[in-house]
């Protein structure tokens, strides 16, 4: 169907205008270090144009394409030094594009194809490149600060000396990328595929690399200070120095078998209780003062690691050969079959710990707390238990040949069926020690007091006697207090009754004084005798019965006062 003549004419006019604005001399391809072949925006002026339906000229070097729309367009033009600020290139086909020195600030390149594109020295700040495909692309010296490249395919791309500050590389595929000397501060690369990449002298400060795949990468001189490596995979990386990083990687390169204690990962003072996946090998790591309560470390090698003063209550350990565990809090720890050969557990709290079948040969447990610990079938030849507290420890069937128990407390401990050839117990407290069928046991120099059972019995008996004495004394005191209270109550009642009788006697006297006829038939002798007797009885009264007598005498006087002869 023939096209609209006006539309065709418009397209011809636009194409002619574009062709007339192109410089006559073709621009040379830019290379790193070269100057742009033209002044920025000196090329065709196509700012704000919708170019999705037109054929672009071959050379758009230094063109002004700000805000232009090129969505889905296949671009074969030279765009060296072009200004594409804010342009929309969503889904555009830019494979092998020549865009060195181009300005793409805030441009939308989402889902764009940029494989093998030359973007050296370009300005891609705040650009959107989500789901784009710039694999094998060249970004040497480019500035991508603040850009988003989530899920982008940038594998084997060149980012030498580029700036990627704050770039979002979440879930990006950047394996094999060359990022030497690049600035990746605060980059967001959670779960990104960065394995086999080159990070020589790369700055990764405060970067989020949690869950990222970094294995087999080269990291010589890389700066990881403040970077989050939680759950990252760093197997077989070369020259990694992770000092100052945060988070615990899921995998780490295997330490040198002859590493020095403390030369590995630095987790001093860290709270690691929330970590669910530890590296397989933390040999020679420094975990001084770390918090590991309840953590399962059975699959982690901690050989020659520094675990001094760690809090690992209820934790599970399996491999800590030659580790420094001085002062560690390992109460109720699960150390069954643990390899603790040559480990230093001096002053460690191992009370209630389970150490069944553990290897403690040549281990140091000087001053350790092993009360109620279970050490059945351990091998602790030449181990040093000097001054250890081992009350009620279950040491049944263990091997303690040439072990030292000097000044240890073994009250009610169980050494039945243990092998003790050459073991030393000088100065040890062995009260109640069970030693049935123990081989070659020699308790010379040890001491034993009354057994704890008898001490407990007499203690309970003494407490019972004391309780009885205290009970009797308390009852006596209570009775005395009750008697004093009753006496005080009686005194109050007596005083109230005495005042009442005193008023009664006084009224009798008033009644006598108020009688005017003193010559009648009244027996005045009986009345006055009763009045005087009542006053005398009141003065002598000491209890309620005396007051009753007063009341009786007053009643007799009143009766005599009213009786006629």
Protein described:
- The chain is mainly alpha-helical.
- It has a domain at 496-511 and 520-564.
- Helix content is 20%, strand content 2%.
- It has 4 helices and 2 strands.
- The chain has helices at 5-20, 452-514, 524-540, 544-562; strands at residues 296-301, 316-319.
- A two-stranded parallel sheet has the order 1-2.
- α2 packs antiparallel against α3 (524-540), α2 (452-514) packs parallel to α4 (544-562) and α3 (524-540) packs antiparallel against α4.
- The relative contact order is 0.03.
- Mean pLDDT is 89; it is low at 1-33.
Outline the secondary-structure elements.
Layout: H1 5-20, E1 296-301, E2 316-319, H2 452-514, H3 524-540, H4 544-562
Parallel strand pairs: 1-2
Helix pairs in contact: 2-3, 2-4, 3-4
Précis, in short:
With 565 residues, this protein is mainly alpha-helical. 20% of the residues lie in helices and 2% in strands. The protein has four helices and two strands, in the order αββααα.
Q: Number of helical segments?
A: 4
What's the alpha carbon Rg, rounded to whole Å?
50 Å
Tally of strands: 2
Mean pLDDT over the residues: 89
- Which geometry do the CA atoms define? elongated
Span of the ends, CA to CA: 163 Å
| Strands in their spatial order, largest beta sheet | 1-2
Largest sheet: 2 strands, parallel
Strand content: under 5%
Task: Tell me the series of helices and strands, N- to C-terminal.
Answer: HEEHHH
Q: How much helicity do the residues have?
A: 10-25%
Instruction: Give the uncertain stretches in residue-range form.
Output: 1-33
Structural class: mainly alpha
Signal peptide: 1-29
Keywords: Coiled coil, Membrane, Signal, Transmembrane, Transmembrane helix
Protein name: Pentapeptide repeat-containing protein
InterPro entries: 5peptide_repeat, Pentapeptide-BTB/POZ_domain
